Each structure stands twice: as structure tokens, then as C-alpha cells.
Structure to design on (311 residues):
């Protein structure tokens, strides 16, 4: 008897999970969440998962309820005798806490990994971790996908011979350089200094962007402070236009207003995190087909390395 595949969604990623399930060719599994008056909640599978490969789709952006809901669903699937439990976490929250960067702080990403392992996860599929080494925090396989699989064709359409890739900070230099090599174009960098989190103090440009169509790439856009300052600075340095590609549209606080008021022509993001509001400057490309294909390949024990266009 062949093993069945069932795809379920947490409430934070229901729209994306629906698209993944549709692309895979199955109906999204039935999950109900009982909410108590004090805020406590209890998810339950309303169909059997016994002996099935269960894929649970849930991004773990704040609030922390999203993460805890995922953990409860994993525990429920394990106690309901699922054959394998694979968490699909398009946006892995707490990934910025991958090390002790000052005394007396937690390593949040490792704590999340420990909780997922303790809950009973057998495998993790995620995209563009803020720090690649987080894969090593797990004692089970981690399939780390890259949004470059989707972004690269989009960027290639913009290449009219006047393109230059750019990173909004030194941390994104490797990613931007990978795109630049693949497209055979130049590279520019921004060097920033922070006085405190989410606040950029000073920024300088490294590289000549005069008359160029600049394409900024980053793994996430949170308050959009770094991104919009970099875009405005590139325009001041003579750039013809600035577009940005960011995998995870965290877009918190003043992000939407900053993007609207900035000189960014367009911000292209994925749907790993649903947009809080619409914007004329923000365009969403879906990762549903990519995740559904990876699920199909895993179920059939096929290689997924073809999806790693740029690492």
C-alpha cells in the first residue's frame, strides 16, 4: 500500500498552503482551531493522518503564537500516528538570533530548533534562512531553498545591458555577488553602521552606479530603513533606477510608508509572509509551485538540487 501525503496549514500561512496543495494536486487538509476565552488555542486534525506523510505549512513570524501553533500541530500529528511529519516553514522566525552577539542573550534560532525536534518533526523545508548555519542546529534533514530560483528569471527580464547588482549591507554581499556572477554584471555595496537595532546611523556606497539600473537583493525587509536609505543613496550617486528583491516581506513599523516615500521603483517579494497591506510599489511572486515541487520530489525520493540556481 502506497503512503499517502496530506498537507495542512497553520492559520498564519493558510493562503500559501492552499496554493501549495493545489499545485501538488491535493486538497488542503482539514484543521480546526478551538480558541478559549483567555487566548489559549487547540488545533486539531479533522481527518485521519495515521500512516501518512504529513506536511504542515506555517511561517513563524511574530506573534509567537504562530510558532506555538505549529508545535501543537506537530504534537497532534505525532500522537495521531502520522508516519512522517515534515514542517514547511517558508519564513523561519527568530533566525536573526543565531549566535551570542553580546553577553547574556539567548540563541533564539537554536531554541526554536530544539523545540521542533522535541515536538517530533522528521524534516524541515524552509527558504532563505537569515543565517545559513542554522541548518546545523537540527539533527534531522533540512532542505534550505533559495528564492533566487524565482527571482533570477525576474531579474533577467530587467537586464538591458545596464544592470548592476547591489547589496544593502555587507552581510548581503555574498548573495548579491552570486547574482552578479550568474548575470555577468557589476556589483555595488552599501556599508552601514548601526547605533541600535532597526536604526541605521550612517551609510556609504562602494562601487560606481552612475547611469545604472540598480537591483538590490536581500533575504528580508523588516522596517525597510536599510533598504530605502540604500536606494536613496544609490540615486544620489547617479543611479538611473533602483529596484529591490527581498524574500521575506516582514514589513513592520514604518516600512510601508518608507517604501512609498523612497526612490525605489519597485520592491519584489515572495508570499512566505502575507502582506499586511497593498502598495503600488510592492509586487508579490509566489513560492507555491517551488514548494509543491520540492514536496513531490521528496515523496518520490528525487533530487532537489536543480532548485539551487544560486547559493
Amino acid at each position: 500500500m502506497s503512503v499517502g501525503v496530506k498537507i495542512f496549514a497553520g492559520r498564519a500561512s493558510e493562503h500559501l498552503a492552499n496554493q501549495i496543495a493545489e499545485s501538488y494536486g491535493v486538497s488542503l487538509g482539514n484543521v480546526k482551531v478551538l480558541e478559549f476565552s483567555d487566548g489559549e488555542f487547540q488545533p486539531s486534525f479533522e481527518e485521519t493522518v495515521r500512516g501518512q506523510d504529513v506536511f504542515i505549512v506555517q511561517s513563524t513570524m511574530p506573534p509567537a503564537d504562530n510558532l506555538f501553533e505549529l508545535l501543537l500541530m506537530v504534537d497532534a500529528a505525532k500522537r495521531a500516528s502520522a508516519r512522517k511529519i515534515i514542517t514547511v516553514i517558508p519564513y523561519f522566525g527568530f533566525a536573526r538570533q543565531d549566535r551570542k552577539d553580546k553577553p547574556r542573550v539567548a540563541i533564539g534560532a537554536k531554541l526554536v530548533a530544539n523545540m521542533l525536534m522535541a515536538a517530533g518533526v522528521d524534516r524541515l523545508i524552509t527558504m532563505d534562512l537569515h543565517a545559513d548555519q542554522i541548518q546545523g542546529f537540527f539533527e534531522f534533514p533540512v532542505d534550505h531553498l533559495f528564492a533566487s530560483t524565482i527571482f533570477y528569471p525576474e531579474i533577467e527580464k530587467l537586464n538591458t545591458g545596464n544592470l548592476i547588482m547591489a547589496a544593502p549591507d555587507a552581510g548581503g554581499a555574498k548573495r548579491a555577488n552570486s547574482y552578479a556572477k550568474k548575470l555577468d554584471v557589476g556589483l555595488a555595496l552599501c556599508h552601514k553602521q548601526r547605533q541600535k537595532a532597526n536604526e541605521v546611523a550612517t551609510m556609504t556606497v562602494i562601487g560606481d552606479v552612475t547611469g545604472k539600473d540598480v537591483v538590490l537583493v536581500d533575504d528580508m525587509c523588516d522596517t525597510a530603513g536599510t533598504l530605502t536609505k540604500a536606494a536613496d543613496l544609490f540615486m544620489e550617486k547617479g543611479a538611473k533606477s533602483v529596484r529591490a528583491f527581498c524574500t521575506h516581506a516582514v514589513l513592520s513599523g514604518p516600512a510601508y510608508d518608507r517604501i512609498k516615500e523612497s526612490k525605489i521603483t519597485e520592491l519584489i517579494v515572495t508570499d512566505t509572509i502575507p502582506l499586511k497591506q497593498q502598495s503600488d510599489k510592492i509586487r508579490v511572486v509566489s513560492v507555491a509551485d517551488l514548494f509543491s515541487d520540492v514536496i513531490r520530489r521528496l515523496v518520490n525520493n528525487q533530487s532537489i538540487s536543480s532548485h539551487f540556481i544560486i547559493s
